[in-house]
Amino acid sequence: MNLSFREELLSGKTMIGTIVTQPNPAVAEILADVGFDWLWIDAEHSPMEMGEVQGILRAAEDRCGCVVRVPSSDEVYLKKALDIGAPGIIAPHVDTVEIAEQVVKWIKYPPIGERSIGVARAHGYGLDVDSYMNSANEQIALIVQIEHVKGAQDIEKILDVDGVDAVLIGPYDLSGSLGKPGEVDDPEVLNYINRVRDACIKRKKPIGIFGITVDAAKPFLDQGYSLVAVGIDTMIFGNAARDILTRMKSEHAG
Prior knowledge:
Blueprint: H1 5-11, E1 15-20, H2 25-34, E2 38-42, H3 50-60, E3 65-69, H4 75-83, E4 88-91, H5 97-107, H6 129-139, E5 141-146, H7 149-153, H8 155-159, E6 166-169, H9 171-177, H10 187-202, E7 207-211, H11 214-217, E8 227-232, H12 233-253
Parallel strand pairs: 1-2, 1-8, 2-3, 3-4, 4-5, 5-6, 6-7, 7-8
């Protein structure tokens, strides 16, 4: 029996993924077929609407785990992503314990939470409502994103919120919140990143992070991170295309 994304996440298995920003199911399908363990479907910093996210889920989720980062940790966005069948949610800018508690309430059905009841793809379009509702609270993964110094300072309290399954560090926004945008190797920024990582490791909570390149992301595998995203679909395509063109021109010139 195949494990669900949440079960794999909580097992502590090392999972290598990448970010999907383009509203084209074929792109996600190709990335899944390549063998990535999970896809970070980014509805926050991309042109994708939920209907397009649903198409990507349909194309790729049988091949690998798919996690949707919603545009904001707002009830409407959370329930839309869940109703289209997202097996995992990345809730951005969870800067306080109060935000973490509210997100848990919005993604869990009663009596645990306050998720509203609708009928959509996740419920078999009305043909599988009871089965989905009976399993959703256990099967859906909640990953909270810590990307502000306030969240890093409050990390222990956030980790104590029942229902938070894992943490994803947003190093670039975290650096910005310290007045050092993009300086992810700055000692002060690294101090807060390590604070979050160490708190998660101490509590045996899965911890994730993003690296723009293999060289940037690979060291994380030796630092306790089990959920690592490397690269972005557009940059993967762009870098590959540029490499082809550069090689063709240089070899022809030679």
